[in-house]
Design a protein that fits this description.
Rossmann fold; Elongation Factor Tu (Ef-tu), domain 3; alpha/beta
């Protein structure tokens, strides 16, 4: 842990382009002063503490991985509990930032705050505070709330523009009802997704799946399988022209494009015809 550092504090859900901008400014300020940078991520999300938990863009491990890809050297997770939530900004600064973490300056996002009343640019809290301007892309503010709404809508293509990467899920492949195999579309069913992870809205998507460190084009369905009178929400994928035993394998999914809503078909022939169209669009997408 650096003894004298420039820091930024927040939850950083999604580690999106707005967070990358904060990190760039943090690293520039640290280099200017000849000290190390430190990123302090609150955990768990404040909504958990107040019994209004929300689903998140990034899990604990995903956040670590994403910041590592951006070249962050020092990352710590600070437990967000009733004690820290009730601290005044000055108490939090002195006890946590200065005494415990050795922070001598803060770089903060435009909508970021800490302490029970927040903090503003150049406010007297014992250390300098630099508040950054917000960034926009295609006239959209870049923040985690907007991104969560895009994912809830299934708008993964627009989300990618603000994230700077393809939205992902991680899980494990489990055995399903084998219905897809019987109609010529063998699927893998995905389970063990972190319960706090935000899953896109029901529908059919073009995606990529990583198996044994190799990425494969795939089509993926999120929903209840209404054509078979299903009721439980499931996630299943099909890799065109691929045959292998996939059960119990770890999997990563990258969402590329939403194709359509989930639909109840009157008969199997109509379902198969639509699945063939979905497969053709998926193959063409990656050509």
């Amino acid at each position: 842990m650096p003894k004298n550092c420039v820091a930024s504090i927040g939850f950083f859900d999604g580690v999106h382009k707005g967070h990358k901008y904060i990190l760039d400014q943090l690293q520039a300020k640290a280099q200017e002063r000849g000290v190390e940078e430190l990123l302090i991520s609150l955990w768990p999300h404040p909504s958990v503490l107040f019994n209004r938990p929300i689903q998140l863009l990034s899990t604990y491990q995903e956040k670590i991985d994403l910041f590592q890809t951006l070249g962050l050297q020092n990352l710590i997770f600070l437990e967000f509990n009733h004690e820290t939530a009730n601290m005044s900004r000055n108490e939090f600064t002195q006890k946590i930032l200065i005494d415990r973490l050795g922070v001598s300056e803060l770089v903060m996002g435009y909508n970021n705050s800490f302490g029970n009343k927040g903090v503003e640019q150049n406010q007297e809290i014992g250390i300098p505070v630099k508040k950054l301007d917000k960034i926009t892309i295609n006239n959209k503010d870049v923040n985690s709330s907007i991104l969560r709404n895009l994912i809830k809508e299934g708008n993964v293509s627009e989300a990618e523009k603000l994230l700077g990467y393809y939205y992902q899920l991680r899980g494990k492949i489990v055995s399903g009802y084998q219905i897809g195999r019987k109609i010529g579309f063998p699927t893998g069913n995905i389970s063990e997704i972190d319960k706090m992870k935000l899953v896109p809205s029901n529908g059919v998507y073009i995606c990529e799946v990583e198996l044994d460190s190799i990425w494969h084009p795939a089509m993926l369905n999120i929903g209840t399988r209404p054509s078979f009178n299903g009721s439980e929400r499931s996630i299943e994928f099909h890799i065109p022209d691929f045959e292998a035993d996939l059960y119990d394998k770890e999997i990563k999914i990258r969402f590329r494009k939403r194709l359509r809503d989930e639909k109840k078909f009157d008969n199997i022939d109509n379902l198969i015809a639509q699945l063939n169209k979905d497969r053709e669009q998926t193959i063409k997408f990656f050509e």
